[in-house]
Amino acid sequence: MLRSRAYYDIIDLAYGVPAFLVSNFYTGGINLDTKVFYIDEDNLDINIIKEATSVIRSGGTVVIPTETVYGLGANALSSEAVSRIFKAKGRPSDNPLIVHISCLDMLIYIIGEPISPKAQALMDRFWPGPLTLIFKKSSKVPREVTAGLETVAVRMPDSSFALSLIEESGLPIAAPSANLSGKPSPTMPEHVVNDMAGRVDMIICGKDSRVGVESTVLDLSGDIPTILRPGGVTYEQLREVIGEVAIDPGLVDKDGVPKAPGMKYTHYAPEAEMLIVKGHVKAVADKLAQLAKEAMEANKRVGILSSDETKIIYSSLFDSEQIKIISLGSRESSSTMAARMFAALREFDKAGVDVIYAEAVEEVHIGMAVMNRMKKAAGFNILEV
Ligand code: AMP
Ligand code: MG
């Protein structure tokens, strides 16, 4: 909780101030003076882009807003720059990074194969946007980026600042999510300041991330294009463009071995223990209410992750002083639920809950990505009712 206090001081300091330095705030073995800028993404300030460009060109790290989640960027063509990303996050070095580009020339420079008609059709339809494609890599991409794989993951982000930074620096930018490894991905400025101040050279605070879950990772190397990680572009949308699409079987059960190295890690995890309850809406609500009551009787602080439609059931049963209830939004709007999910997990941590009971989300459209992240956050702790 000491950290939360310091974090509030920083946010208080930051508002209304265009830039400031966070010195030695949170070391973790790294002691960087982090420059933080609050920007208007609809009206970019060229001076801030230039300053971020000089950090990227000199091998430093910049946290950038994107439409999926905030990213922790560095020059993708420099092993040394990329090693700073792994260090800042505490990310295992066998988990490869996504390379972000702003134009086709950059793609051609970093891939070692011709662009297939399917890849072209997907790029035409979904770029810039939350779709990552896997290509054979060229010799220009250092092995640290791809964790020794012969393939490289690439996407073009739909973010004015990210695209301008890539373009201005003339470099592809490797960027994983800008959270400490294992923690929920950051979708709001306060999340990145909290996790990354003192660990990176610069933080650019823009809007809350519009999509709120990471990109879909698609492997086109086999006969059937395969989703290695569900994300912002849905299975249904991919099928419309390229027909048959498979889902990596390693994603489906907790003992499977996923093809994307990163998917094997415990991820997105809040501090609290988490249980997902799945089934008919009414049965789920009844079960959650019962579990919450029992946990409270055992003196646990309880969090409930609900929807707009069911929140009233819990708030009529429990006093808001005793229990933290967060709604992800209406069950009718899976995109709203996606946009709010990671922030909700962090909110539970801030409230210091011991256990989170969560309603399952329907696994269609972007709900597939939401449930994938929720299952990992819960360590596949699911109860069917
Ligand atoms: P993050 O950077 O945190 O958004 O995670 C990137 C995801 O893409 C991880 O799950 C990686 O394992 C996956 N990924 C990156 N590069 C490759 C690749 N060449 N082949 C398969 N998966 C990849
Ligand atoms: Mg990540």
Topology (elements, then pairings):
Elements: H1 2-14, E1 19-23, E2 33-38, H2 46-57, E3 62-64, E4 71-75, H3 79-89, E5 98-100, H4 104-110, H5 117-126, E6 131-136, H6 143-146, E7 151-155, H7 160-169, E8 173-174, H8 189-196, E9 202-205, E10 216-219, E11 226-229, H9 235-242, E12 246-247, E13 273-278, H10 281-297, E14 302-306, H11 308-317, E15 323-327, H12 334-351, E16 355-359, H13 367-377, E17 382-384
Parallel strand pairs: 2-9, 3-9, 5-7, 6-10, 11-12, 13-16, 13-17, 14-15, 14-16
Antiparallel strand pairs: 1-2, 3-4, 4-8, 5-8, 6-7, 10-11
Helix pairs in contact: 2-7, 12-13
Adenosine monophosphate binds next to β7 and β11.
What does this structure look like?
The chain contains 13 helices and 17 strands. It has 2 domains: 5-205, DHBP synthase (Alpha-Beta Complex), CATH 3.90.870.10; 273-384, Threonylcarbamoyl-AMP synthase, C-terminal domain (Rossmann fold), CATH 3.40.50.11030. A hairpin with a 6-residue loop joins strand 10 (216-219) and strand 11 (226-229). A 12-stranded mixed sheet has the order 1-2-9-3-4-8-5-7-6-10-11-12, sandwiched between helices. Mean pLDDT is 91; it is low at 1-20 and 23-27. The longest helix has 18 residues, at 334-351. Helix content is 36%, strand content 19%. The chain has helices at residues 2-14, 46-57, 79-89, 104-110, 117-126, 143-146, 160-169, 189-196, 235-242, 281-297, 308-317, 334-351, 367-377, and strands spanning 19-23, 33-38, 62-64, 71-75, 98-100, 131-136, 151-155, 173-174, 202-205, 216-219, 226-229, 246-247, 273-278, 302-306, 323-327, 355-359, 382-384. Helix 2 (46-57) crosses helix 7 and helix 12 (334-351) packs parallel to helix 13 (367-377). The protein is of the alpha/beta class and 385 residues long. The site of adenosine monophosphate has 20 residues, from strand 7 and strand 11.
